[in-house]
Amino acid sequence: MAWDFETDPEYQEKLDWADAFVRDEVEPLDLVWEHEQFVPLDGLRRKAIDPLKQRVREQGLWATHLGPELGGQGYGQLKLALLNEILGRSSWAPIVFGCQAPDTGNAEIIAHYGTPEQKKKYLQPLLDGELFSTYSMTEPQGGADVAQFRTQAVKDGDDWVINGWKYFSSNAKTASFLIVMAVTDTEVPVHKGMSMFLVPADTPGINIVRNVGLYGEPMNGGSHALIHYEDVRVPADALLGGEGQAFAVAQTRLGGGRIHHAMRTIGLAQKALDTMCERALSRETAGSRLADKQTVQGYIADSYAQLTQFRLFVLHTAWKIDKYNDYKKLRKDIATAKIVMPTVLHDIAWRAMQVHGALGVTNEMPFFRMIHGAAVMGLADGPTEVHKTTVAKQVLRDYTATDDLWPSEWIPRKQDEARAKYAEYLELEVGNL
């Protein structure tokens, strides 16, 4: 029997280094260059950030999700989960550690499905952190429901011509290339009739209609593009993974990414809990510390319990991914993590906000940003409600219906069965009375 909740001492040293490095060197970047993570580095920012990336490389923590052949360490999901918990505290940390979304997922699918030429042109610069990319999938009329997708790529000689609209194509305004999902065959089921294309951002016909912002950002000043692809012509070698392979390609990038997001969320929620506890010990009202108020104690206890349960669940899921090396087998657990993630962050951030009173709702504290981030998580990579349906279907596969009028746990029948099982003892018991 083997149960172990300890981290290897050698890797724990890496985590301790990352924890201090993120706190002392990376989190300050969030304050001096806010919202500039996906802007290509200029002279001044490059002078500050390139040395930080180099220090990460020297520690062997650069792009750790990738195998050694691609410049990473090939860490399994459990190690990645523990590291991502630390990185989740800072918006800049994934950039500095070479594992920012959507570029990590895009790099993974190019590594799996790209031709040697595609890897040379797109993958290596992406791994080096010298450019950014976009995953252009969802559409305005159907969100993430692929059955509603209308963007098409039609063969024209040796080229493909793409026409249609895409929505929430994150970082398109600073991306060097886009991975575009389009219908290539309307005569087959949707899961077999879509393909992926690698499209340079300067290709004629890519029209960014507006850059949609999240709440609080200026109109047309966000980073989630509404794009009109208008006669966008790409050569045959722009196809990624082969015609009709879009779904196989897409699933490669989603499973591990959701676990990474979950652990980064845990790091952010832990930050909210830490801030709440500090405030509770530091502030007095109505004759005693906030920490002595039962309501605040309830907030802290509920937050700790919620966060600890979720953390253990995600780590266990990551461990199972490493054990089985099969995302499909763990589909239920990965979807469950996606379901729980927004609620955990929302609830803890909301309680922390309440404990801070009026200060908590201002832009001088991070709680509303966390709460808004939780709302985004409930929609990104598929709405929570869709994942609940997935989990329910997967859970039900382990059960069978009963043909009996009464449930299998109906007590009267079980009592009769129990009495029959131990009849001889019951008879002796009665006889001895």
From TrEMBL:
It holds the Pfam family Acyl-CoA_dh_M. Residues 247-396 form the Acyl-CoA dehydrogenase/oxidase C-terminal domain. Belongs to the acyl-CoA dehydrogenase family. The lineage of its organism: Bacteria, Bacillati, Actinomycetota, Actinomycetes, Mycobacteriales. Residues 135-214 form the Acyl-CoA oxidase/dehydrogenase middle domain. Homodimer. It comes from the Bacteria. The keyword Oxidoreductase applies. This is Acyl-CoA dehydrogenase family protein. InterPro entries: Acyl-CoA_dehydrogenase, Acyl-CoA_Oxase/DH_mid-dom, Acyl-CoA_Oxase/DH_mid-dom_sf, AcylCo_DH-like_C, AcylCo_DH/oxidase_C, AcylCoA_DH/ox_N, AcylCoA_DH/ox_N_sf, AcylCoA_DH/oxidase_NM_dom_sf. Keywords: FAD, Flavoprotein, Oxidoreductase. Residues 10-130 form the Acyl-CoA dehydrogenase/oxidase N-terminal domain. Its cofactor is FAD.
